[in-house]
Amino acid sequence: MPSRSGIDSEFSIEQGYLTGLYARLDAMRDQAATRLATARAAGTDRDATAFWQAELVRLESVEDRLCFGRLDMRDGRRVYIGRLGLFPDEDDEPLLVDWRAPVAEPFYTATMAAPHGVRRRRRITTRGRVVLALDDELLDPDTAVTGGDRLVGEGALVAALTADRTGRMRDIVTTLQAEQDRIVRDAYPGVLVVQGGPGTGKTAVALHRLAYLLYTRPYLRTRGVLIVGPTQVFLDYIGQVLPGLGEHAVVTATIADLCPGMVVSRTDSPETAEVKGRADMAGRIAEAVRSAVRTAGEPVEVVFEQQTIRLDPRDCLRAADTAARAGLPHNQARLVFQQRMVDLLAQRLTDRLESVAFTETGEAIDGGSADGRLGAADLRALAAAGVVIHPGQDDDVDGPRRMLDETDRARLRNALLADTEVCHALDELWPRLTARQVVAGLFATPAATGWSAADIPLLDEAAAVIGDPVDAARDGATYGHVVVDEAQELSAMAWRMVLRRCPTRSMTIVGDLAQTSDPAGASSWDRMLRPHVDDHWRLAQLTINYRTPAEIMAVTTDLFIAHHPGLRLPRSVRAGGEPPWRRRTTLADLPHVIAEIVAAHSDGQLAIITPPPHLARLRAALSLATPLDATDPVVVLVPGEAKGLEFDSVVIVDPAAILTAPLGHNDLYVAMTRATRRLGIVHPGPPPAELSRVRES
Ligand SMILES: Nc1ncnc2c1ncn2[C@@H]1O[C@H](COP(=O)(O)OP(=O)(O)OP(=O)(O)O)[C@@H](O)[C@H]1O
């Protein structure tokens, strides 16, 4: 055992070092504040103002757990690891190494068998600016046997996993595990899919990977990075993680948010949503847009300044063909079509004009040659009649003459383009479309009835095909790297929407095929991704469940095996929690029983997960305000809302009703794996067979 004085001296060494680090951080903050004030006062350099403002925010956000580790290397070097790099001076050795730097990697990956030059790994637990605990691991077996070093403090991982939940995710930078760190630092440039069971840290890993990529690929800061999550509640839940890692320039969005200006106000039946999510909807949208062009068949008559101009259907078809071959979206190709048509109309008008000349008294003389141009003989006749004709600059003096030069013809084309009747006639042939029109036309649904979640990817697809954003005022941006969380829920059409925002296909996709609850979602990553990225995607797996204790995972086994024979249940990292329980009641008594459970609950955050039909009744019974706030001590929510979240205690209501949804078994699995400590089930009537392992209380 290390002596008390030995431990004390280790603490005082680390406390002294930590105090020095904070002093350096404070100095950097002061310097950033001064530079910001100077830039603001000068008022000229907006880039400098923005830079120092962002720098100040970055330095403020690393206050908590600034330094959390130390590596003692076999060559005698000592490396302190923390949230950012700190240097005494530009060229000196760092006081603190950013956790993302290569030299920090062994902090996460070194083992006794592969120590990567590390002799001792020390985890430093702090609160505020005070050292609370030191936790040492010796990676040098010889020294360990002689007892020359010592282990100090509580295991940081266990402490992190057993801490009370707050409704906000925390970063795991101090306790990232080796299999997670490998994914965080993976240099794969294409689509990296992280598959893993509940609680394996997929979300945490994706967020840390994003922080790592922003550090190692600084160009991403200007290209922008995007996180797509299932709900706003989920995005709020993870919202503190990246700022805590010093990264603020990240956009978060649900699928609906990616389509600016759209509000989801309608719910489709699962069957309809599944149909709308299918990949072949893209073909239907393209066809609907193509068929809006009506150029075949009848000759086209266009009236301009009381003259009727008749165009041959073949001319219109040729114009449409040229426009279609320009490779532009519909609304932009329409401009090419209009241009071609106006050229044709102007030509017809010019031909007609040049085949008719007028005397000074306004009388028409038919002086046209066979090709509609004025020949030398015509000109002589016209001159004799007193008509003055200005030959165009490009006219050959010996050849047929033109009345209109290029400028005149351009003016004529402009006059045609500005003419309401002409525009109307051309619009009939190649109408300008809106995304709303196209999608409403597909399902014969009036746009006024509002849009469902499954409509959003269709609107976005239509917007891409026609070339105008759904909301004329706001266009969707593209990003240098995109993270998609709960990615198993995305339909084929939603994938198309996300991929349009990531032209480089640099993506981190995290999800679990056993948690899919959207009927249009994924049952195979390959089937979902191959049509878009061919084989430029790679699978990484996480296998250890850090959230859910073994006792709870054990009761999900029957449910899991019955529906996912090909997948493996993740292994729980900890056991010893309370055994799950179930309680039978009646439908009428349900609100009363839940209120009783809530009243008796005192320890940590509690979630009541219920199928939608009971939601309003239970919220009313508990007098809960409506918008869901995941930080409340008691929350009532449906399985879809619980995705990605976690709570100290979970009570599942009426599991049989949850199982009636199309992928209800996955919903129930999601609900059961949200608990970090306790799971209870309240069921009106007999329990579903899949839950027979749960003891009745
Ligand atoms: N290395 C770690 N150290 C500390 N906590 C961890 C670690 N890995 C995961 N956790 C914790 O485990 C919990 C589950 O992590 P996370 O939500 O990322 O898992 P997930 O795989 O996305 O889960 P699900 O698919 O169920 O939504 C979180 O509280 C997270 O902080």
TrEMBL record:
Keyword ATP-binding among record annotations: yes
Pfam families: AAA_19, UvrD_C_2
Keywords (A to Z) from UniProt: ATP-binding, Helicase, Hydrolase, Nucleotide-binding
Domain UvrD-like helicase ATP-binding: 175-549
PROSITE patterns: UVRD_HELICASE_ATP_BIND
GO molecular function terms noted in the UniProt entry: 3'-5' DNA helicase activity; ATP binding; DNA binding; hydrolase activity
Protein name per Swiss-Prot or TrEMBL: DNA helicase IV
Organism, scientific name: Actinophytocola algeriensis
The organism's taxonomic lineage, starting at the top: Bacteria, Bacillati, Actinomycetota, Actinomycetes, Pseudonocardiales
